[in-house]
Amino acid sequence: MNAPLTVEKANLSPKDFATDQEVRWCPGCGDYAILKAVQKTLADIGAQPATTVFVSGIGCAARFPYYVETFGFHTIHGRAPAVATGVKLANPELDVWVVGGDGDMLSIGGNHLMHALRRNVDLNILLFNNEIYGLTKGQYSPTSRVGTRSPSTPKGSIDRPLSALNMALGIGARFVARAIDTQQKALPGILEAAWRHKGASLVEIIQNCIVYNDEAFAAFTERSVEADAQVHVVHGQPLIFGKERDKRLKRSENGYGLEVAPLGEGDPLIHDQTDRVLAGMLAALEPPMPVAVGILLDDPAETSWERAVRAQDAAERRPDADLGAVMRRGATWTA
Questions:
Q1: What is the 3-state secondary structure (H, E, C) of 121-139?
Q2: What is the pLDDT along the chain (335 residues), one digit of tens a residue?
Q3: Quick one: 264 exposed, middle or buried, by C-beta within 10 A (0-12, 13-18, 19+)?
Q4: Of 188, 302, 296, residue with least CA distance to 234
Q5: Are 87 and 81 in contact (CB under 8 A)?
Q6: CATH classification code of 14-216+302-328
Q7: At 87, phi and psi to the nearest 5?
Q8: Domain boundaries, the chain
């Protein structure tokens, strides 16, 4: 078993987490803004490059390990959560970040993402959602909306889109959040909260693909409408929104959803980030309802998966054990 790491927190700036590699995304891609926010977050939390690891799969977002001055693995399509699980199990003291797009994480990688979340491996999982496959030239993805025309759906997609956050909540994830690439004041704070959560954390980052799915989220991200089209959720604070801060969310009459009501007509609903049912209602909101942005659920467990595995191994470890005897016990065969 590896000895616990004892390195102190570093006192670095965001620039210290930038590599010498040329950042190569399409001009105007939302990934630039996310990279900037991640580098700021690493500086804010005092991250140590020697104990920080970024793991990615395949896709535009998967370039991330090349651009962050830490250890990194650029793995294969969809398998980043599985590789990251191995890294964390090998040394639980490492800070492990997983980066992938909606195609990488929710299509071929959906199974790996699901099990990393349900096991509660202490990973910081960043899912860039632009509702399209970017690197492979604009095919529709699991989050693409009905009617999306693409090279793989020339007549328009007939698939219902997958909600990453509702999927995560449904399988028992304990930290679920949504952020927007351009909201640089809010994004680092959400990333830091995900890092502080001990266990699996999933942050869906709404990210604009300027080439293949430009303005897909304009209905709630454009500056002219965002005040009325977004509700920013903060634990213990009322769920109010609007340009004039005059609207509130309330539970629907049947209790199974949320509705918009004028502020002043009844008490506003208070956000409780430990309430899984409320988190599910917020995750389900989509235009013309306001889209929920922020930490929807943060309800940590007593321990994370990799530490439980290590504790189990430690309980069975016998310093005086004979390796040969252990390997030969039980049923054996001679060939």
A1: CCCEEEEEECCCCCCCCCC
A2: 444 444 567 789 999 999 999 999 999 999 999 999 999 999 999 999 999 999 999 999 999 999 999 999 999 999 999 999 999 999 999 999 999 999 999 999 999 999 999 999 999 999 999 999 998 888 999 999 999 999 999 999 999 999 999 999 999 999 999 999 999 999 999 999 999 999 999 999 999 999 999 999 999 999 999 999 999 999 999 999 999 999 999 999 887 899 999 998 888 899 999 999 999 999 999 999 999 999 999 999 999 999 999 888 877 676 777 777 777 777 777 77
A3: exposed
A4: 296
A5: no
A6: 3.40.50.970
A7: -60, -45
A8: 14-216+302-328
Location of structure tokens 């310093």 = 319
The tokens describing 23, both together, are 């950042």
- Distance between CA atoms of residues 41 and 51, nearest Å: 15
As given in the structure block, the two tokens for residue 93 are: 């003291």
**Can you give the pTM of this predicted structure?**
0.91
